[in-house]
Please model this.
Amino acid sequence: MTQVSLETISNLAKKRGFVFQSSEIYGGLRSAYDYGPLGVELLRNVKDQWWRAMVQERDDIVGLDSAILQAREVWRASGHEEVFTDPLVECRNCNARHRLDKLDDPDVCPNCGMRGTFTEARNFNLMFRTHMGPVEDDENLVYLRPETAQGIFINFENIRRTNRLKLPFGVAQIGKSFRNEITPGQFVFRTREFEQMEMEYFCRPGEAEAWFEYWVEQRMSWYTGLGIDPAHLRLRHHGEEELSHYSAMTADVDYLFPWGWDELEGIANRTDFDLRQHQEHSGEDLRYYDPDTEERIFPYVIEPAAGATRTTFAFLIDAYHTETVHDETRVVLRLDHRLAPYKVAVLPLSKKEELIEPAQRIAAELRRRWMVELDTTQSIGRRYRRQDEIGTPYAVTVDFESLDDHAVTVRDRDTMSQDRVSMDRLVEHLEKKLA
Ligand code: GAP
Model:
């Protein structure tokens, strides 16, 4: 198990303004969350790192931002309307609803402990429904997308043509998805509104297996490269019975959450299932003309599909450390610099104007490069503790000596070592540290 409990990490997230319950002042809307000032930075940094690795640093992948609302036919073609379901049972004793495939014992209600009280399982479709326009009939029914992937498949030909792409190439997308989960829970792990980071990599059918292996390796290294402990990651191949309707092979990247191993990302070989389906349903030719063989083929697709919100949660959990310093417990988020919400905190030692003014000047200068917090409240010890708890890699302290020696103290979050650095060289010093 990771060292932090679900309760501790969710309390820290709420206390420090990473995540709030949606609609809290009205008693809270279950399974929806708002990302506060620190959470929104962390989430953005996670998404930015994914986008850099998957799009900006490569010449074979382009990006897309497709609409959440799509024609109903999309979800008929993709199979979601028919089979995107979970088996739902209801307890006749306490009326609790459960996902049958997630129960430890399929005969015992985990809510009231009664045996043999479940109704017959029924397939519950997870897509949220709404209507386009004022008339709420079947004609105008639309779904909130349950995955970002279909937006990519339906734009395959638009993107290929306008960007003159040749196989193999990928299309990446980050965005909101919605699933009416039967049993949301474990804080932001499984919610009904969440964000995904998905990439569809189109390749020649004969090369699909090799690309599958390639993407498994790439994705594992992305997590460890950003600081996830390799001992907290594992790869788990799906058995035949677990595969989604579109997949010939899937491997999950699992993370060791406080409650045990659970999925962070799925990497699937979707074959040519989606393009074929959309060609059949739309009547448009979605085959790829291969100039080498002069044939029209349906490319195969390898899909690394990660959850942005779920991944952000895993980074938060993995960064959480405690240690004893001078008989006191220090909580520190050892987030990779690239993910930390603030890179630098500027802390004037006292609230006296003679220190506030240079601290403001320094903060303004540093803000041109990094996310910076200027914190003037409470004792310096408490301010260091807060910065440690929110994962700020460096704290710059302006003290009375600074007025004479034009230098500041730079404290390192992880080692707590302190360097005296001339104000003129502060940017250069931090640039090296944060490189
Ligand atoms: N396009 C394929 C697809 O959507 P998935 O395994 O159903 O595959 C991909 O979802 C990822 O999206 C998951 O590994 C998970 O990280 C995230 N995800 C799925 N459902 C989620 C939920 N209810 N709450 C938060 N994240 C979710």
